[in-house]
Write a structure and sequence with these properties.
Elements (H helix, E strand, L loop, with lengths): L7 H23 L3 H16 L8 H29 L6 H5 L12 H7 L2 H12 L4 H8 L3 H19 L1 E4 L7 E4 L11
Antiparallel strand pairs: 1-2
Helix pairs in contact: 1-2, 1-3, 2-3, 6-7, 6-8, 7-8
Amino acid sequence: MRYPVADWQAVLEEVVRERHPALVGYACLFTTDRPAAEDLVQDALVRTFSRPRTLTDRHTAEGYVREVIRTTFLDQLRKKRTWTSRAHLFVQPEAAADTPDRSAAAAVDVQSALNALPARERACVVLRFFDDLPVADVAQALGISQGAVKRYLSDGTAKLRLSLDVTVRLDEPGTTSVAVHPVTRTGRSQS
């Protein structure tokens, strides 16, 4: 449905009413938990609709919100990386020794496997395979070279294959069968 340019509130209401769950699902691909994904969607909606724009239909607005979700996630990632590179300046050595080990257990489904990936690899995998963007567009969206994107994709998909124990069979020409076997904490397939 198309709205007059001045009726951006109707576009916002339609996006929130009809596409909010899909946007949260999309944000979950980037973040490690649902509350963080919901916060990311909320931030994206505020950033998208807080300025006058010519968003005249839900599809254009949703695409813009998805782009803002990606850029907001990457901005938060950069801020976190900057903070962690300087956090040692503010922490006493005794307190640093007491921090719990945050290594993740082996993944049992796609979401937890994505969460186990480093943020750059996860962003590349999501943009390439979930958004179906070409490598050049992924590189442009993340502000890195195409070679770096290819490397992140190679490393990320290799890790996903290991954690999900993905086997691809080509039994007949023109058909592909993919079997996913969850991996236990010991690293062995449950099948």
